[in-house]
Each structure stands twice: as structure tokens, then as C-alpha cells.
Amino acid sequence: MLRSLLGGLAAAAVLALAPAHAAAPQIKTQAPGWYRMVLGDFEITALSDGTTNLPMDQLLHGRPQETRKRFDHARLPLPVESSFNGYLINTGSKLVLVDTGAAGNFGPTLGKLLANLRAAGYQPEQVDEVYITHLHVDHVGGLVADGQRAFPNAVVRVDKADADYWLSTANMEKAPKDMKGFFQAAMASLKPYVDAGKFQPFEGPTDLVPGVKAVPLHGHTPGHNGFLVSSQGEQMLVWGDTMHAAAVQMPDPGVTILFDTDPKAAAPQRRKVMAEAARQGTWIAGAHLSFPGLGRLRPAGKGYEWQPINYSSLTVAPAAAAPAGK
Ligand SMILES: [Zn+2]
After folding, report:
1. What residue stretch is flagged as signal peptide (predicted)?
2. Under 8 Å between Cβ of 139 and 47
3. Is residue 2 part of a domain?
4. Quick check: is 134 in a domain?
């Protein structure tokens, strides 16, 4: 017995000393981009459309030196690898998708939302409603796949103010050359739904399906909206492009970005939303917050601290969300 045990140990020692035949090749791909959380009776699935590098020090308004210092503090090299996220809400009776990603309009590292929706266990045919925070191509591009409606059974809803602005040929003609593509992409993405009678703009704060409400957050674009999701006393605000660069705009919510149609409106809007969300302990789901872009805010200095969601395997019942500060 002892002899065979010793023999085994000796063999193991020889194996440990033997050189590896070949280095294992590195795989160099990421896991499928989806993350699930529970909100009251609802199931929320964050869906990654991918990431792309953005020269945030050039895109953010204000003092580039101060901006670079903030990124340095966050240990984020420039250009910053930035997330593009959509959110799937299963209320139990309706399947709602907020934002659809860029599809093929923004380079090869984006356009993965549809594949990640499938990887998360859903089919695009199951989606009942698609809500678009605003008609920028990285949110609306994924409405179309191979020239067809990517969500064939869904109604698409967007604030009328954004539809009026981005679907107007007169506005496109007036726009600077480098902005015309935004108009064209919005028009092309919505056309199949308009033709099928599946496009329904809304105006002002609107109850869309039970538990999901449109909240106007105009500024980033003329009809930019968030969607407030409520179930069993828990709340989540899917806030679209209220923020693009957390490392800078969390501590300093006054900083705006080149993509803001009306920066003067976008900054106070962001401050107001953040103050309210921090006070009420509302979950935030952010299109450009590092994937899965889910977390909460706590006041810190002149701005806020981002408290990202704690990883959950969902095999234990999640505790009720505690309001910040309690
Ligand atoms: Zn965006």
C-alpha cells in the first residue's frame, strides 16, 4: 500500500518535471456579452453590442488636461475602450428591448447585440416592444438585419421630438457634412418599421407597458429619453446616453460631450437625474457605462461614486435593493 503510494508520488514528481510539449495558445476572445439581474418580479438582461476605442480627451468638452488626469486616476489609457450596451426587460407579460446597438454601422468591434440576445436564451422574434433612447446610430442601427426588421414582431417606440428631428430631410440638408450620416442611419433603421405600421412615437412622460415608463431626458438629443422600470418597489432607470465617460462625468457631472445636440441642456439634466437616482437608490443601466453598465450612485464630493452591481449567480434570492445611504 505504502509502496504503491510512494511509487505514485514519484511518478507525479516525474510528470511535474517533464517539460510541456507546447505552450497552450491564448484564446483571445471574451465570454458572450450578457448579464442577468432580477428587479422585483422582472428579469433584466444587459446585452453587450461590443466596445470601441474613443478619444475621450478630444470628445469631452472642457479642460483636456483635467480630463486626462481623471482617466489617469482611473488607470484608463486613452483612447478609452468604451462599452455599448442594450437592455432586455422581461416583465413576465412583455419582452421589451431598450436600444439595439450599432449593427454594422460603427466598425467590426460593435454589432454584437443580436448574437448576445440569442446567447442569453432569447430570440429576436420574441421581442414585443423596442424602445429607443434616441436615434443615434449606435442605438438604432441594430433595428435592421440584412435589410429586414431584426425584430419582426416588435413595435418600435421613440420620443416624437427625436423622430421629428432625425427623420427630417430638411434638418439633414441643414446639418454639417459630418453629421449627415446620423440622419441617414436613423432614417434607414426606422424605415422598415414605418412601412410595416410598426413605428409609434410617444410624446412626454408615457406609460408604455405596465412597469415601464418613458422619462424625457432631453439635451443629449432633442428627444433623448430614459425608461424607468419599476417592480415590487424596486426601480431602474435605463438612462441611455446621460453619460459617456464615467471616469470623468461621475465625479464631475457638468462635463458635456461633442455628441450632445444641446450641451447646455444635457449638463443640468444629468445633474438632476443623478441627484434623484442617488436619493432614491434607483438602479442605473447605462448604454456607455462599462458592461454590464448596471449599478447605483452615491454622492461623493461635487459628484458621485459609481457602485457597480455585485456579481450574482442568481442561484440565491437577491436581497431587496437598499436605498443609498441606508
Ligand atoms: Zn450612444
Report:
1. 1-22
2. no
3. no
4. yes
Give the distance (Å) from ligand 1 centre to CA of residue 321. Answer: 27
Flag whether 9 is in a domain. no
Q: Can you give the pLDDT of all 326 residues of the chain as single tens digits?
A: 445 555 555 555 545 555 667 899 999 999 999 999 999 999 999 999 999 999 999 999 988 999 999 999 999 999 999 999 999 999 999 999 999 999 999 899 999 999 999 999 999 999 999 999 999 999 999 999 999 999 999 999 999 999 999 999 999 999 999 899 999 999 999 999 999 999 999 999 999 999 999 999 999 999 999 999 999 999 999 999 999 999 999 999 999 999 999 999 999 999 999 999 999 999 999 999 999 999 999 999 999 999 999 999 998 765 555 555 54
Range of the domain at 297: 32-308
Taking the centre of ligand 1 as the mean of its atom positions, its distance from the CA of residue 170, in whole angstroms, is 23
Query: Which strand (E) or helix (H) includes residue 225?
Result: strand 225-231
- Residue 135 CA to ligand 1 center (angstroms) comes to 9
Cα(138) to centroid of ligand 1, in Å?
A: 5
* Domain total of the chain: 1
- Tell me, in angstroms, the distance from the centre of ligand 1 to residue 173's CA: 23
CA distances from 25 to 17, 21, 22, 29 (A): 21, 12, 9, 12
Let me know if residue 6 belongs to a domain.
Answer: no
From ligand 1's centre to the CA of 139, what distance in Å? Answer: 6
Q: Identify residues whose C-beta is under 5 A from ligand 1, the ion.
A: 138, 241
CA–centroid distance, residue 287 to ligand 1 (Å): 6
Q: How far is the CA of 220 from the centre of ligand 1 (A)?
A: 9
CATH code at 304?
3.60.15.10
CA of 180 from ligand 1 middle (Å) equals: 16
Cis-peptide into 323, omega within 30 deg: no
If phi > 0 it is left, if psi is from -120 to 50 it is alpha, else beta; for residue 226 that is beta
93 is written with which cell numbers?
Answer: 407579460
